[in-house]
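ingest -> validate -> predict -> emit
validate: passed (alphabet ok, no gaps, 67 aa)
predict: started
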Amino acid sequence: MEKSIEQTFTELEELLEKLESPDTTLEESFACYEAGMKLVKACNDKIDKVEKQMIILQGGAEEDGDA
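emit:
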């Protein structure tokens, strides 16, 4: 099952906390950064999908004269 955007943001926050920790090694920091970038891309993809759906719905509402 696909993660919700809220779950993805929570994971990003956890990665950020780890990155900000002085105990995190350079290798761990790089792994966190890489994982974070993948999560950011996933969030962007989800937001783009929702925006496209909203545009479609707005277009349908305009055709019905509801806009």
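The chain has one domain: 5-57.
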